[in-house]
Amino acid sequence: MTAGQEQPDYAPPRPLSAYLLGGLPFDALLALQRRLVYDISGDRDTAALVLCDHPTGITVGREGSAAHVRPNPDVLAAREWPVNWVARGGGAVLHVPGQVACYPVLALDALNLTAGRYVSELVLAACDLCREFGVEAAPDPERPGARANGRRVAHVGVAVRDGVTSFGLVVNATPDLAPFRDVRCDGDPLPMTSLARESAHRVRVTTVRQLLLELIVKRFGFDRVSVFHTHPAALPPPTRHAIPHGS
To answer: What pLDDT is attached to residue 14?
Structure first.
């Protein structure tokens, strides 16, 4: 961990369920998020974190535009690059293997956080992660994310519903960078870079996932972490107000 990093003054520590899932189709991620948001809305003293990567595809958030995606629909179909318009902050993002997607599902009131402060903390977590690999990164002054050597290495785009977060942070660890010439991340005219390109150290996706987990745990003050390698998205959500037997 980064030496000398101050612990933020948050509410008392909370338990965190961390799902380290590897490759996860985007539709499965959406189903999992819905389930976790439902659960945490009903028990705001709990929190969850999904760490995964997605098959190649594009998501476009509320500030996004079709103009940020250079290939036309026919080319996208031929490449089998789906485009999902999603209700999160930020613009267009290309998802590819070799990234690490980090999706915290937290009740902001339980951590005494505003939405703006939460976004800032995710950006700082991305900068901390870069420093773990000897890469100097700074918050992007134009839009939430982190830049290294002038190019974006991480995107932050979140959603908040009833005070519970979803979506989050995407970091380029070891992806092929060539496809990023075709998608302007959040409208940036420069293609994204990666930790592998900027760092003199060996970068592994598994290491990036583990470090991100540790950084999120420390930054948000969780003291108990349960790690899972499967997820409950296929299960129906529980009924909160079930009628007792015999009624």
So the answer is: 79
**pLDDT at residue 243 greater than cutoff 50:** no
Tell me the C-alpha distance between 211 and 214, whole Å: 5
Fold assignment, 19-228: BirA Bifunctional Protein; domain 2 (3.30.930)
Domain ranges for the chain, please list them.
19-228
Q: pLDDT tens for residues 177-195?
A: 999 999 999 999 999 999 9
223: β partners? none
What three-state secondary structure class fits 48? strand
Name 151's bridge partners: 148
Distance CA 144, CA 138 (A): 11
pTM: 0.88
Angle, helices 115-132 vs 205-220, to 10°: value is 140
Confidence band, pLDDT 50/70/90 cuts, at residue 247: very low
User: Which residues touch 131 (CB under 8 Å, ≥6 apart)?
Assistant: 2, 137
44 Ramachandran zone, left/alpha/beta (phi>0; psi -120 to 50): alpha
Q: Between the CA of residue 127 and those of 9, 20, 45, 61, 154, what are the distances in Å? A: 20, 21, 27, 22, 9
Q: Report the share of the chain in percent with pLDDT over 70.
A: 88
